[in-house]
Design a protein that fits this description.
Helix content of chain A: over 70%
Shape of chain A: globular
Number of domains of chain A: 1
Strand order of the largest sheet of chain B: 1-2
Strand order of the largest sheet of chain A: 1-2
Largest sheet of chain A: 2 strands, antiparallel
Radius of gyration of chain A: 21 Å
Largest interface: A-B, 29 and 31 residues
Number of strands of chain A: 2
Structural class of chain B: mainly alpha
Structural class of chain A: mainly alpha
Largest sheet of chain B: 2 strands, antiparallel
Shape of chain B: globular
Number of helices of chain A: 20
Order of helices and strands of chain B: HHHEEHHHHHHHHHHHHHHHHHH
Helix content of chain B: over 70%
Oligomer: heterodimer
Chain lengths: ~475, ~500
Amino acid sequence: MLIDLLQIILLTVTTVAVMVVTGFRRDHGLINALTQTGLCAALLVFAVIRPVTPLQVTPLLIIDEYSLFFSCLIIIGAIAVTAMAYPYFEKHHQHNEEFYLLVLCGTLGGVVMAASNHFVSFFIGMEMMGISLYALIAYTVHAQKPAKFPLEAAVKYLIMSGLASAVMLFGMALIYAMVGTFEFPLLAAATGGLDTSLHPIMLVGYLMIIVGVAFKLSLVPFHMWTPDVYEGAPLPVTAFLATISKAGMVAVAMRLLLAAQAFSFGQITVVLSLLAAASMIFGNLLAVMQSNVKRLFAYSSIAHLGYLLVVVIAAAAVPELLSVESMSFYIAAYFFMSIAGFAVLSALSNAGKEMDSITDFQGLFWRNPWLATVMIVVLLSLAGIPLTAGFIGKFYIFTTGVEGQLWFLLTVLIIGSSIGLYYYLRLIYTMLQEPHNNLVNDPAALKLPIGLNVVMAAMTVAIIYLGVYPTAFIKTLQSLASTL
Amino acid sequence: MILVWLMVILFAGGIGAALAESRGAEHPRAVALTAILIDLFLVILMLVAPDSLGLGTASTVAQLGQHGDWLVLLKAEWIPRFGVSFIFGVDGLSLMLVALTVFLGLMALGSAWGEVKERTGFFYFNLLWTLAGVIGVFTALDLFLFFFFWEVMLIPMYFIIAIWGHENKHYAAMKFFIFTQVSGLLMLLAILMLVYFHYSTTNVLTFNYFQLLGTKLPANVATWVMLGFFVAFATKLPAVPFHNWLPDAHSQAPTAGSVILAGVLLKTGAYGLLRFTVPLFPDESMAFAPVAMTMGVVSILYTAMVAFAQSDIKRLIAYTSVSHMGFVLVGIYAWNAQAVQGAVMTMLAHGFSAAALFMLAGGLQHRIHTRDMDKMGGFWGVAPKLAFMALFFTIAAVGMPGLGNFIGEFLVLLGSFKVNILLTGFATMGVVVAAVYSLIVIQKVFHGKNKNNYTMADLSAVEFICYALLMIGLVWMGMYPQTMLNMAQPSLQSLGVAFPG
């Protein structure tokens, strides 16, 4: 049993170690290395854990291939964030050690969410993540010259996220009032199987949970906070927000919906479809108007979660296996693209100045071909062009959608992706233009730290590998889907 | 394996060219030239001596085709989860188009030789990758693979227009990409619907073209699926009303880009209709034929008239391309031996003539830095060789007997006359309008007075060789079209075109 919890234990130990070491000696490099070591160890132990899955560890957590897949993604994300953070803060910001403490706590929250099989662990994980994020977003507030408006972003996130948590908690309470259990596997039995219709209180309960989840995943119309928070937060935190917090939430929400057999109830599917359609359309439309790359990524993430929701909805009509498989593939692809994209942004920025305006990218292809190539791969992948993971991901969504006969959502998906093409291409075009003549202190000319280079190279290889030869990865996903 | 080698050499050559730039701006083009010449050599070998490559037992490709054989050269698993595999193959039709691609690749290289001076490495990288993508499109026989290459050829072309294009390149590149990509998504949806319905009736999940042939779809669905394919191909072809991207893309692209676009990329649309849309959905396509033929005729007449109104010489040629591709559309949907043979001939001949015309227009622009015909005039005196070439290829495009385009258009009209007399009548008027817009070019640019006293260098040796090769091709097609007709016939028969006798 302890073996199954190794990842969580290792993360906890690392968190404590970072805290203790910081108390004795403030050394940014040391703490960064310590965090990185702990995270890598936590990633690698998956090989030890995998043979002994699946196992329900207390009623709260279940460790199976599905949870392991997501926890590994989350830890990879944390490793990337840690690698981005060092050059971002070093020499530009003081007192950086607590940053890693918060990142570790948030990561732990994400891992708990991925493994939770119970409303209580769900909520604990979510709040661990949320509370770490409040502080992370505002981390640079005391800097001499913060790059953005971290306080505004943090307060916005605090209020919105707090509200969402409260709504979700209310929903959980309503469900508990009706069925008397917090355990996911018992929900379906308590609602009486497939053929009875959902009790109105149950329905309200589920919808309130969906609203909460939609807030955290920033689905339209609960997306208002996203662009401001993405823009205001320091870049490594934005990367954290875009990847880790989304992956944890997606993992647990999918598990809950499947366990509760929520898709057999038409109302829930309708609500989810509306959320998906609105996110695809508005996310893409609003992204077109952005001149700031962080905001652009924020809106594009809204659209991509809308795409992702299509395969979740398809679970109502196709074998659940396929739906889970598509969802996992897409989230992994999206994860790699986002990390690589933010790594490029981060390579150009530091805590005192962020290069996140579209004009900052002008001529990047000629100023620094390596960064621009990574970015172009990311953008093409986000746009779903072949040879990239994003294409196979989109292919999965189309396949699942066609099999589920979701013609309306597929039409919206096509419209949404066509709009998406425009703003991704615009950024690519900007990078291909002639550079400004009077560039002084071009950050693209600086030598990149090795950690960041490794992250970018690994993610780019992953994106292209999954795009060219996804077969091996698909086999893993099929096996994990079958354990759910 | 040889088909894969064709692509691998181009892909590798592209990377080599990009790397070679660090040794000097001249190196990439040498690498690119080597790659294309190797490919050309392989293609010629396939055309004249398939035996030596161990491709089959018959002595010529045409004969191989007559036995109903495909030169299926590679079949391997790719993504078994979805029943996707690598299947590449050529028959006479594909082989001719592959040869056209490689040959026009060489022409594009020739036209870029003296013109592209900046960022040469990345330019030749894109050029070679586009060609590789197009070869993939012409040889892929798995629908997923086909779609894959359909998109792969798009991105490098986008870069070519967006980086080395002219004054309005951003707009043109974006429009080109979005039109093709959106219609491509519709095709992807159609492919998936086809595969899904095939799966639900036979329980076999596959994207294999041969297995999907003859799939029976529910009647109401089939029309939509067919339209998904049709729109993608009609956009690429292009046919009115999906032609809107083309004048911008062609006029803004650098010369080499225009040559590839007009000479090769447009043909992928026609090839798609021939290989996929009609054979996969024969009944729906025939029911749809009057609409498609009308679109073709509208393309012929409307764009010919629009062409006449242009003062930008590249835009004019771009519109004439749409007009000529209208004949291809009419021919394909008339779907009888003469008409489809005519469509294939038009594809080949137009590839040659349009490539030459774009090279001429590009050459002019390179020399005098304008595409505005109102500023030109009297160039016959200044550059007589160039003027002669312009006259030759213009007359070829109009459809002068003895040259390839005439054979193509004549056969199309002959074939479609049996199917629809009224539409054929209108289509024939296109030939008349063509003469008008073509001669106006010659008049405005080469006759009259040289108002602005432009002086320019006449054709260089490289240019002269390129034009001479294209001339030989067109004369061959016009004088002895039987070579091409023989190669195409077995493929067309296997696609379901009825040949008499």
